[in-house]
Amino acid sequence: MASRDVAFWKEAINDEMDSIMSNQTWELVDLPPGSKPIGCKWVFRRKYHTDGMIQTFKARLVAKGFKQREGIDYFDTYAPVVRTTSIRILFALASIHNLFVHQMDVKMAFLNGDLNKEVYMEQPEGFVLLWNENKVCKLVKSLYGLKQAPKQWHEKFDHVILSDGFRHNNVDKCLYSKTCDDYMVIVCLYVDDMLILSDDMKGIIETKRFLSSTFKMKDLGEVDTILGIKVKRNSGGYALNQTHYIEKVVSKFSHLKIKDANTPFDSSIKLEKNDGRSVAQLEYASAIGSLMYAAQCTRADISFAVSKLSRFISNPSVEHWKAIGRVLGYLKNTKELSLQYSKFPAIIEGYSDASWISRVGDNLSTTGWVFTLGGGVVSWGSKKQTCISHSTMEAEFIALAATGKEVEWLRDLMVDIPFTANNVSTVSIHCDSQATLARAYSGVYNGKSRHISIRHEYVRQLIQNGIISISFVRSSGNLADPFTKPLTRDLVRITSRGMGLKLLK
C-alpha cells in the first residue's frame, strides 16, 4: 500500500473480494466451541507477458492451509494435471490434422470447489466488518491455500464437463473428448489453464459457451502461451519455444559469467562425487529445477546434461557449477530454437539407446529414449538404470524395455483421442544394437541374463502382440543418442534438428 502502484493494487484487491463475495465463498458466523479458525493473508504478484511487459496486477486472498490438521480439516489432497507429453502430442496432432486450438482461463478456479468439511477462517485484513469483529468466516466454497482446494476444484470441473457428453482419456484424466455428428472436440486442463481443440470452429464455440455458462471464464482466443511456453502457428503447423523463460533463467544466474557454448555438456569432463564442502547447495538445486522445466517442456537436447547434473544436487562442487554454467551457455546460444511440428510423418516413431557404465565408481548405465510425431519430439527420457548390466547388449535391452513402457502409454493415450482412435498402428522402435535385436526376437532364454529375464519376456510380448516392432539404425542416425552421453558440436546440431528443434523462418 506504500508503493507507487497502490491504485493498481487496490483495484486488484477489490476485484478479488468482489469475486469471493459474488461466489458466496463464506458466511459470517460465531466460532463454535472447540473449533480453531485458520488465518489468511494477501499475496500480491505482477503477471507478465512473454515479452516482459506487465500484464496484470494480481491480488490473491490465501488461507493459511499449513495450519490445517489432516484427518480433521481435510483427508485427501491429490489432484491430477495434464502431462506435458499430452500437450505436445495435441499440438503435433493439431499440425497433422489442421485443428483449431483455442485457450481459456478459469477465473478464481479454486473458489468453485465445494467443501465437504467444516473450515473456519479469520476475517481478511482490511475487510473486518464493523460490529462483527469477533465473528469468523465459515467456508462454504474452497479457497486458495486450503490443502484440499486443488482436489475439490478438479472434482467440480470433472463433474461439470462429463455432464456435457465429454469422456475421460483412459491414461490422462485431464484430457476430455467428445464426438458429435459434425465435429470432434478435445479439452485439456492444467489446473485453471485450458486448451480446446477441434476440427470445426463450431465445436470450440459451443464448448466455450457451455463452460462460460457454468464457470467464470476468460476467453483468450487462439492459443498464444501455455504454461510459459510460447505457441506460434504457421502454414506448416505449430511451434513451441521458451525463449523468454530461458532469458529469465540466464539473467537469474548471470553472476556465473555465462559464456556461449555449442554443446550442453563437455565430453572431456568427468564429473565425480564431491567429498568436500558443498558449494551453494540451495542455489544449485534452484538452478537444476529451472533447467529441468526447460528440459521437460521443449528442450529435449539438454535432458542428458540435466539428468547427469541432478545426481550431484545434495553436495555440489565448483566443477558441478561450471557444468551448470555450460548448460546455461548452450541455452543462451540456442534460445531461439523452437520445437516445430508439421503434417508429416503422421505416425509415432521411437528410438532407444543406452550407454554402458559411463564413469569409474558408478556401475549403472544410462537409458535414453525419444518418440517423434509430426516431425517433432513428443516424449523423451534420460534416466540412470536401476540394475547393473554385464554388457552393452544388456544395457541396451534394459533401455528397450523402458522404451516399451512408454510406447504402451502413448498408444493407450492415442486410442482415446478421437482424431487418432482408428489409426493407431504398431510403433516402430529404432535401436543401434544388432545383438539386442537378435535377443528381442529370440525365444531362447539364456540363464546368464536371468536378472533381466522379466524385461526380456516383456519386450517379446510387446512384439508378439503387435504393439512394437524393432529395427536397426546406425548410431549416427539414432535420435536417442544425445540422451545417453555428451556429443560433439556437429552431432548435437544434427540430432537437435532431427528432434524438430529449429529456428523459426
TrEMBL record:
InterPro entries: DNA/RNA_pol_sf, RVT_2. Residues 23-264 form the Reverse transcriptase Ty1/copia-type domain. This is Reverse transcriptase Ty1/copia-type domain-containing protein. It comes from Vitis vinifera (Grape).
